[in-house]
Amino acid sequence: MSRNPIIPYVTIATLGIIAMIVMAGVGLDQMRHADEATEETEEAADSPEAIYESNCLSCHGGDLEGGSGPPLEDAGDRFSLEELEDIIANGVEGSSIMTGDYATNEEAEILAEWLMEQ
Known about the structure:
By secondary structure, the chain is mainly alpha-helical. It contains 6 helices and no strands. It has helices at about 5-45, 50-55, 55-60, 75-80, 80-90, 105-115. The model has no long low-confidence stretch (mean pLDDT about 85).
């Protein structure tokens, strides 16, 4: 009895195709999870707490109590929403510390609204 010499090649090719299909499915699943993680990260980055933590905490303290910068606990009582947005976005005139390059205009709006509620 003689064996067909093509059978090992067909077997290897079939296993290779199955492996590629499985790997493609795994890759698509990983992409889906990566997209979900990116969306969650973007949502978290837009939260006022995250913006404050990355841009303001080092000077204004963890509980808005102040530090090298003034306390912000009562910022909503001392300033209007527009004034807070302007200070956050553009800084304080004559200050070498609060120069206005710590937050974008969008982040300034988010932070000002949040500070009004504190």
